[in-house]
Structure formats: structure tokens, C-alpha cells
TrEMBL record:
Organism: Solibacillus palustris
Name this protein carries in UniProt: D-alanyl-D-alanine carboxypeptidase family protein
InterPro entries: DD-CPase-like, VanY-like_core_dom, VanY/YodJ_core_dom, Zn_M74/Hedgehog-like
Domain of life: Bacteria
Region (Disordered) location: 43-99
Amino acid sequence: MNSKQKKKSPIVVIVSISCVLLIAILGSVYYKYYIAQSSVLQNDTKNEQQSEESDEVDGTNKVDDPNSESSVTEPPEDNPEKKPIDSTTESEQPSTEPEVVNGYLVEQQPATEPTYVKGVLIVNKKIPLPANYNKGEDPTAVAAFEKMAAAAKAEGIELVAFSGFRSYEYQTSLYDRYVAKDGKDAADRYSARPGYSEHQSGLAFDIGEKGREDVWLTSAFGETKAGQWLVNNAHKYGFILRYPLGKEDITGFMYESWHFRYLDGDLATKVYEAGVTLEEYLGIE
Ligand SMILES: [Zn+2]
């Protein structure tokens, strides 16, 4: 008997322990369910009396039955409480975005270093050069222009680079003069503020045709034989039409049929073949 009892007793113990555990599990599940249900009722009446316990339960409520909670109990309070959190984070984004006027960042500090994007010196309305960036005409760019001018001359077109490097000081006097003449908003469309002119890089040229000074600095130049020749051939010599027609919102400047930018290597050809602006090609916002 003793030996039988000893053999049976572990089974009895295991079964009884299993029963106790099962009851305990069922009990705890029911208890959680009960608490969850009762907390819904509590939330209905006592939102302010949320204890640490009901915070935990609150989390399960939101996952379990968000619809019944919001539709039955408190839709007018609950939804406005949740949605303003989203809308405030959304409305914070525009307010934290820098203010832009005529393409310029209102609170931008003067540059202390030139900016290179993927190895390319960039000057635009959001990326200025330091006032002391004063390297003059880039000799490689000048040589490239002369090579291009020789090729054009062979086809009966005499190109003139009538404006190249401009110092920060010179651009200041130029811009101030335009502002006095046409006002700041108009001047910002066709002339860069000091520090923001690509001419300060020594890599930009305003190009015209000798004998057609009447269309220099006008969009009409782009329709002349010389202007068309440049559009189709400048990239072969390392130049791109920097401010194409219809891209003012990207480049910040109105169409300038005369303004060409020198780029190293075959980058000009790549930009030309991509049919995009320099900003787009380099992924500059
Ligand atoms: Zn120019």
C-alpha cells in the first residue's frame, strides 16, 4: 500500500497543481477582463480619477475596443483630445520651417565657408559665399570659355563674355543700384544679393554675341543663333545654362538666356543630358 501510495502520490500532486494553476490562470484572465470592463465605466464618469492601475488598463482599452469606447462613451471629448496632438505636430512643422522671402532665408547668417555639394561649389539664394571669397576669375573656366568661343567663331558666331567674376563689394553696389531703380522684389528676381551671386565664384559668365548688344541680358538672346548655339553646345565645353526657362522656383532666378556656369569634367554634359537644373541634378532642396 505504501509503495502504491508513493507511486500514485506524484500524479495526484501534479494533477492538483495543474488544477490550481488552471484556476489561477482562468481567474486572472477573468479578473483582467472584469477590471477592463469596469474601468470603461469608470472612465465614463471619472476621467480625472485615473490611477496608475487604470493607466495600464487604459492601454488595453485603446487596443481592444477603440470604436466602442469612442462611439458609445465619449466621442466629443476623446477625439478632439487625440487629434489636436497630431495637428499641433503638423502645425509645428511650418512654424519651425525657416521663413523665405524672394527665395532668401530671412534669418540666414552670413556664410563663413564656401559650400560644396558632391564636390561642386554651389552658390544660390539659400547657399551664399563668404564675403571674403575673392578668388577672381577661375582660370580653368576662362580657358574653357575661350575654347568654346573659338568653336563658335568657326561657325560664324562671335561670343563675348561681358561679365565674369564679381567681388562681394561689386555685387553690393550692383544690387543696391537695381533695388533703387526697380525695388527690392523686382531686383531679387534678376540680380543676386551680395554673397549670393554665382559670379562671385569666378565660374559664371554672362555671354552675348558681338554686334548684338541690343539683346544682351534679355531673354531674346536665347532665340538668336548665338543663344541657340550655346544651348546646344555649351555643355561640350563644360558650361550649363544655369537658370533655364520655367525653373525659377528651383533655381530662384528668372530665365537668364545669357548666364552660364562652368562645371568640372563631364558634369555639364551629365546635367545637360539629364535635362534638369544643377540643384535638381545634385539633389539640393
Ligand atoms: Zn550672370
